[in-house]
Amino acid sequence: MTYYPPISPYAAGLGGKCPRCGQGPLFEGYLGLRKECEVCRLDYAKADAGDGPAVFIIFIVGFFSVAAAFIARYVWFAPIWLAFLISASLAVGLILGLLRPFKATMIALQYANKAAEGRTGE
To answer: What residue spans define the domains of the chain?
Structure first.
C-alpha cells in the first residue's frame, strides 16, 4: 500500500486536484468528474458534492449581485436596464468562477473527513 502524505483539502480543492495525492486532475471538462485519478488511481465513484456548492454560491452571488444593482441604480443613477445588466453580468461571472473550486473543495473535504452515507442505528 502506497503512503500519501496529507494534502490540504482547500489547496486540492482550489487547484482542482485529487484529494489524496494532490497531483492528478479532478475534473474532466468544466464540472464533470473523472472516473479515477490519473496519478494515484483513487476512484471518484463515491465522490458526490450534491447541491452543497451551488447553495453556498447562491448566497454569495446573490448578495453581491443585489449590492451591485443597488449601487448602480442609487449611487451611480444608472437606468434600470443598465443596473440589471451589471447585476446579471456579475452574477454569471461569479457563478462560473466559483462553482468549480467550490465543488472540488467540497469533494476534497469529504475525502479528508472520510464522509459516508448516513446510517440508522441498526
So the answer is: 9-112
